[in-house]
TrEMBL record:
Domain of life: Eukaryota
EC numbers for this chain: 2.1.1.290, 2.3.1.231
A GO BP entry: wybutosine biosynthetic process
Family in the record: Belongs to the methyltransferase superfamily. LCMT family.
PANTHER family in the cross-refs: TRNA WYBUTOSINE-SYNTHESIZING PROTEIN 4
Name of the molecule in the record: tRNA wybutosine-synthesizing protein 4
GO molecular function (one): tRNA methyltransferase activity
SUPFAM superfamilies: Galactose oxidase, central domain, S-adenosyl-L-methionine-dependent methyltransferases
Catalysed conversion reaction: 7-[(3S)-(3-amino-3-methoxycarbonyl)propyl]wyosine(37) in tRNA(Phe) + S-adenosyl-L-methionine + CO2 = wybutosine(37) in tRNA(Phe) + S-adenosyl-L-homocysteine + 2 H(+); 7-[(3S)-3-amino-3-carboxypropyl]wyosine(37) in tRNA(Phe) + S-adenosyl-L-methionine = 7-[(3S)-(3-amino-3-methoxycarbonyl)propyl]wyosine(37) in tRNA(Phe) + S-adenosyl-L-homocysteine
Alphabetical UniProt keywords: Methyltransferase, S-adenosyl-L-methionine, Transferase, tRNA processing
Involved pathway(s): tRNA modification; wybutosine-tRNA(Phe) biosynthesis
């Protein structure tokens, strides 16, 4: 537990070095420097921002009072005191920090050894005594185990903490490391002993969904189990906890809501453009698994720092489920490491034969961008898989993620776009040629030939997280390339009609309301046109719209498909059409109550039903984003291949095996 403070200081320090947060004191306190990934920077940015937002609000609301105090529990190597002092915000406020004795001693040594820090604290009047490791006029550093409440109380009294003045308690990922009986006692003690008090908490939530399982496993492996989660699994439970322990007001938000509602739009945009970034799913999942809570009692006026400046409808209550869909492991496909990947693409090249390409995953025991292709085929009711060799070890493939593959004949598929790193330009187009007898039953590997294309439709191809869909116009075949993002544009709203087979860009008139720009949406062919659903929009907000690009006599027309109840906004899902129904599989949404399962939209009536996926037969967390899926109409089954991602600092999770979702019970033919 003590080690967590040091590693979070290093992460905050890295975020400050990249301009996410303004804090020159972090470097002085963190000691070692290590550059973290952009996803970690964002995670620590939102944490620092939430805590600062509430602390500054407390200081602002109490600025007319003669004296206030802040008590930071489990403060670690936090720089809060030095920042506030430097900003001139502590004229009437004393900051008390408490941590394990050896953590407090390390910090005291650091402060004494760094002129810039010791100058801010000023005269400390000699060495600290006993548990009072360090004592300045407005800064006291105490070495006490927080779970020993009587000792904590005695030391605080000795250090001069005054029960009668407004006090802000801060617990930033601290209480959850304590046994619940002890953290509950601490929360109740603070309410009982301080007539005017505020309590700020930032920690984890939602242990039981797939991301929550990965998160819990990570902390257990570090020997820092998260105790709060079993008893207080969601934001509502945490709110009830405080209201039941003597606090009269309590508001709570997960970090998706905090980012959207409490951070000004221009600041959101600033943060979103600081570094090349393409891990939206993991960012939003991380944010849904952390909350900020502000409780208070006896404060006049009342302390409510978590009032949204904008209201966001997508954070509304739980999603009603119409039923469940069973998930089972695909027996013959287990143990094939090449199928553990995300950001890849799978395409049916003929009935019961699937080609899977690209993505990031596991090859030869290493995590890397995937070079190998795989063919999956079904024989006598069983799936088999074979690794595909490329005829030439090909640089042109570029180890791409988030590309599309469209099958144009029995032997030819077209790859469009994709990326290597999000900081490099999108990749162009390639033909994939494969033998007519392509399936996984033969003992020999199947050879696939890559053919580069002249940059005929280059602007159409230099993108990723887009969609490519087959459509017909006046009896001719076209590919419709839509949306996505590029190295210059975080979100695209343009489209191209590529006439096949020569792939010339054709201008075809399109009328009707243009859908807002998006990436990570789904697109399906239907009745000669294209159905677009969901996606991530310009402000990194999930979208809930469904559009149909319908063929007219002289061109196409965008039509909005109204769904009721309205489709819950989502992205990073897959989609299929079956007998007039649009099936959406998985994805990421902002609802904490559940993760997206299978949604069925009746395209005639607009009726929209959500089904939860029953994972009781799986022995591992099923992460349904960045996956691929194939729909098998005869069996009314979905084969889900891959999925997962880099789960914040908790490690990479790859769904270990393909999964079959049986839809027969929810797709009853009329």
């Amino acid at each position: 537990v003590q080690a967590t403070g040091g590693s979070s200081a290093v992460s905050k320090c890295s975020a400050a070095a990249q301009g996410y947060i303004q804090d020159r004191f972090l470097q002085l306190l963190a000691g070692r420097r290590r550059r973290r990934a952009p996803l970690i920077h964002r995670g620590y940015y939102i944490r620092a921002r939430a805590v600062d937002h509430c602390v500054q609000d407390f200081l602002l609301k109490t600025q007319s009072l003669p004296r206030t105090q802040i008590l930071s529990l489990g403060a670690g190597f936090d720089s809060l005191y030095f920042r506030l002092k430097d900003m001139g915000l502590l004229h009437r406020t004393v900051v008390y920090e408490v941590d394990f004795p050896n953590v407090a001693r390390q910090k005291a040594t650091l402060i004494k050894g760094v002129k810039e820090l010791s100058a801010l604290v000023g005269d400390t009047g000699g060495e600290g005594l006993g548990a009072i490791i360090f004592s300045g006029k407005d800064y006291k550093l105490l070495g006490v185990d927080l779970s020993e409440l009587s000792e904590l109380e005695r030391t605080l009294e000795e250090a001069g903490l005054n029960n009668e003045i407004p006090t802000l308690f801060i617990a930033e990922v601290v209480l959850t490391y304590m046994e619940n009986t002890r953290s509950d006692a601490l929360i109740q003690w603070a309410a009982e002993h301080f007539p005017q008090a505020c309590f700020l908490v930032y920690e984890q939530v939602l242990p039981e969904d797939p991301f929550g399982h990965v998160m819990q496993q990570h902390f257990s492996q570090l020997n820092t189990a998260l105790h709060s989660l079993a008893q207080y699994p969601d934001c509502e439970a945490q709110q009830r906890r405080f209201l039941g322990k003597g606090w009269t007001e309590c508001s709570v938000m997960d970090m998706n809501e905090f980012f959207t509602c409490c951070i000004p739009e221009d600041e959101q945009q600033r943060v979103q453009t600081l570094e090349p970034f393409d891990e939206y799913e993991e960012w939003h999942l991380k944010c849904s698994h952390y909350f900020v809570l502000a409780a208070s009692k006896g404060m006049e006026p009342s302390w409510t720092p978590l009032l949204p400046s904008v209201t966001v409808p997508c954070h509304a209550g739980p999603v009603g489920m119409a039923g469940s869909v069973p998930a089972t492991v695909c027996a013959r496909l287990s143990g094939i490491p090449g199928l553990r990947r995300y950001g890849h693409h799978s395409v049916l090249i003929k009935p019961n034969v699937i080609l899977t390409t690209g993505g990031f995953g596991e090859e030869d025991g290493q995590h890397c961008r995937m070079r190998n292709f795989h063919v999956l085929s079904k024989h006598a009711g069983y799936w088999e898989a074979a690794c595909v060799t490329q005829n030439i070890p090909d640089k042109r493939w570029g180890e791409r993620l988030y590309h599309t593959v469209s099958c144009l004949s029995d032997t030819l598929a077209l790859v469009i776009g994709g990326r290597t790193s999000p900081s490099s330009a999108g990749l162009g187009m390639l033909w994939l040629k494969f033998p007519e007898t392509c399936n996984a039953s033969g003992p020999d590997d199947i050879a696939v030939e890559l053919v580069s294309l002249q940059p005929a439709a280059e602007s159409a191809a230099l993108r990723w997280r887009h969609s490519t869909t087959e459509l017909t116009f006046k009896g001719e075949q076209y590919l419709f390339v839509y949306g996505g993002r590029s190295v210059l544009e975080p979100v695209l709203g343009d489209w191209y009609f590529l006439h096949t087979p020569e792939l010339s860009c054709t201008v075809i008139a399109v009328e009707g309301p243009v859908p807002e720009s998006r990436h990570s949406h789904s697109a399906c062919s239907w009745e000669g046109g294209v159905l677009i659903a969901g996606g991530l929009g310009a402000a990194e907000q999930p979208l809930g719209s469904v559009f149909f690009l319908r063929e007219l006599e002289h061109g196409f027309q965008w039509q909005t498909i109204e769904t009721h109840p309205p489709l819950v906004p989502r992205y990073s899902h897959t989609a299929h059409v079956h007998e007039g129904k649009l099936l959406l599989v998985g994805g990421v949404w902002f609802h904490a109550s559940s993760v997206p399962g299978v949604t069925v939209i009746d395209l005639m009536t607009g009726l929209c039903l959500d089904y939860v996926i029953n994972v009781e037969h799986l022995e591992w967390p099923l992460m349904l984003h960045n996956h691929s899926s194939a729909f098998l109409p005869n069996e009314k089954e979905l084969l889900v291949i891959g999925g997962g991602g880099n789960c914040f600092s908790f490690g990479t999770h790859l769904n270990p095996e393909p999964v079959i979702l049986s839809l027969s019970s929810i797709l009853i033919s009329h």
